[in-house]
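pls design
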């Protein structure tokens, strides 16, 4: 079966900054032991990876370079913010360069990157940590199957033995 909209694709991947091919991977599914599971056509993956998976079959291995526009977007300068330390439950453990979750006043959780730590506040960057970078993905498709009606209704893939929300 070929990967297409409303199919579930299981795949291993590693991702590197395309400008620094010799560096260790930024992320590697094999390090976690389990392949990624995604329902195509439901915004679960960055667009460049979804496009690269479409039309492929289990057993295929390939590399794809994904520009920022098809990955995590361009880096935007105006997304730095100074936040009082009290909004970080683990403020004492944070260091510049680390990512953490910040809960907004509206209750929305956002991943942010710590830029600077002051006496009473922390400067954070709301850009995705990989924004502005061209990425090189090494992908190996392990399985492709039709999505169940339940998966399509939920908008995400479920592991082979069912799911729990």
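designed seq:
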């Amino acid at each position: 079966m070929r990967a297409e909209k409303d199919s579930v694709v299981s795949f291993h991947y590693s991702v590197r900054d395309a400008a620094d091919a010799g560096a260790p991977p930024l992320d590697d599914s094999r390090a976690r032991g389990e392949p990624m599971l995604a329902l195509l056509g439901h915004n679960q993956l960055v667009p460049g990876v979804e496009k690269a998976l479409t039309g492929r079959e289990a057993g295929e291995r390939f590399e794809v370079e994904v520009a920022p526009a098809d990955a995590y977007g361009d880096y935007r300068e105006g997304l730095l913010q100074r936040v009082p330390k009290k909004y970080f439950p683990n403020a004492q453990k944070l260091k510049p360069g680390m990512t953490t979750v910040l809960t907004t006043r509206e209750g929305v959780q956002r991943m942010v990157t710590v830029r600077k730590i002051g006496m009473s506040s922390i400067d954070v960057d709301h850009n995705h940590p990989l924004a502005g970078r061209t990425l090189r993905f090494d992908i190996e498709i392990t399985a492709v199957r039709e999505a169940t009606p339940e998966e399509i209704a939920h908008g995400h893939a479920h592991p082979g033995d069912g799911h729990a929300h």
